[in-house]
Amino acid sequence: NNGKLSETRNLNLIITQLGPWNSEISIYNTTKTVTVPAGSTITVTFQYQIPVSTSVGWHGIRISDGTAKATTIFIVKAPFNVTFDIPSNVTQKEEFYVNVTITNELDVPLSEINVTIDLPNDFNTSESLTKFIGTLSPGESAKISWLVTATDFEYGYAPFDFYINSAEGIRYIASTYTNVLRLPELRIYPSAPSEVKVNVPFTLTVNVRNEGDLGINNVSIHISLPNNVTASDSLTKSIGDLVAGEMKTASWTITSMHD
To answer: Among residues 100, 89, 216, which one has the least CA distance to residue 158?
Structure first.
């Protein structure tokens, strides 16, 4: 206070964290009334205990007396460092291990730690979804794993969420993902004239496309013909291997002997 008279001010403290779409939301708001004698400086202390539910990362601090304002920030670090060892790609119905390493990043021990895995849709495991770690000292790590079977019909992005709890009230979520590759999936597209004449040959064309994500070997096409309809060559033709997305064609010359 550089004046000649004492002044009384209401100091308002607001603590914020990031919200949706980079918005800033208030998580703590308090006010203290202070009187500053003329020609003197005083220190005002606010005490804030970070709740266990506080989000990790950036937090803002704003202090205002209605005229002047000061701002700063602090960072809340994650209680755990979580790393994953999981295949980047798996095939439908494949069995694979989800390996997780959890490290206590705090300066105090954490006890009764348990981890629950949330599997992607239609994935399954015969093991318990929740596994118990126990106590981790500061900087100590533990490894856990699940043997998981991938979906047999869905494909693409497959997320895993891990819910980590401790007796001290820590609640933490970590996530990872894999990509499910479709098994070879053959689609057949036949083509022939809508009308044909007796004893006049026509061409039957069959296109085969592999719409899966993996290749398939030694593909052959077999056609069945009604009575009195003949083909110029074998009813079975080999088109070889089909990589993912590839299409190959086979054709037959067909003749109908009767209407």
So the answer is: 89
| 6, 9, 15, 16 alpha-carbon torsion, rounded to 10° | -130
How many residues does this entry show for the chain? 259
Does an H or E element contain 255, and which?
strand 247-256
Give the C-alpha separation, 78 to 81, whole Å: 7
d(CA 17, CA 57): 8
- Residues with Cβ within 8 Å of 226's Cβ and at least 6 positions away in sequence, in order, are none
Q: What is the DSSP letter of 168?
A: T
Non-local CB neighbours of 180 within 8 Å, separated by 6+ positions:
89, 90, 91, 92, 150, 151, 154, 155, 156, 158
In whole angstroms, give the CA distance from residue 142 to residue 155: 31
pLDDT tens-digit readout, 66-110: 888 999 999 988 899 999 999 999 999 999 999 999 999 999 999
